[in-house]
Amino acid sequence: MTLFRTLLLLLACSSALAQTPLKVKTSPGVQALPLIAAISQGFFERQGLKVEVLYTASSQELRDGLAAGDFQVAQFAADNAVAMVENAGHDVVIIAGGDDGMNELFVQPEIASLADLRGHSVIVDAPDTAYALLLKKILLKDGLRAGKDYQLVSAGGTSLRVRAMRDNRDYKASMLNPPFTLQAEAAGLKNLGRAVDLLGPYQGRGSFVMRRWATANADTLERYLAGFIEGTRWTVAPENRAAAIALLTERLKVAPALAARTWERLADPRAGLARDARLDMQGFRNLLALRAEIEGTWGGKPPPPERYVDQRYYEAALRRIAH
What we know:
The chain is α/β, with parallel strands linked by helices and 323 residues long. It contains 15 helices and 10 strands.
């Protein structure tokens, strides 16, 4: 081996050894595509990170794991961060956005209106967070109260809920997002509309971490966000359509027949992934207002969003990749 080749090998080994390991936990849905893209396209590697993506079956599992330090970054419904602070006393901070949740209300085919859900069971992940609160609010607008006019049943993540609705006609409604919305349509379930059309702007998925970890690992967090933002940009770029669809089918197991439509939804600037994974502050204010109204948190008066959000890491990440 020549001296030049030896030096190249040593440099490559040194670079690999220098990579900082980082674990990120998310749901096994299509909104994980920017993470997968950031790995496959080398965006994290260029930031000196070795990112491992873990998948959760439920919001409770994710919340418990983040608090225990089983992983460092959660990429999930942002309301879970608020729940961790208010319900469990954990010091969690939201550091980026992702999307509005892309949620749509699906019901069994015999349900003609929301009023028809009276006396029946609807299914959610966890009853006190995120998209369950959206469902409660939508039904409340029609005069239906949880526990009185209908029953909430915890059935796990979105993939489990769409399967439950297919297998058990007694489960009358749930909030679903892509690609499970497409599966629900194929199974004959009825779509009653997008959550944001029914309720207004909403901050769905976001990235959140333990505040103490963020303070101690600011540089790592900025590099992670830089890679994640680049992964988001790559995902929605029209020139990457074919490659992104391939990742959806190969890595996220989306059926080939649904993959193209799923990518189109993700890339839709009005209804898909948020540009550069930016947090929607109005949507987050609405999230807090919804929790205050539905759960009675904070005595019904939502606090300012800055209590849960720190965008300094995100802004620093943008500067790292400024073009």
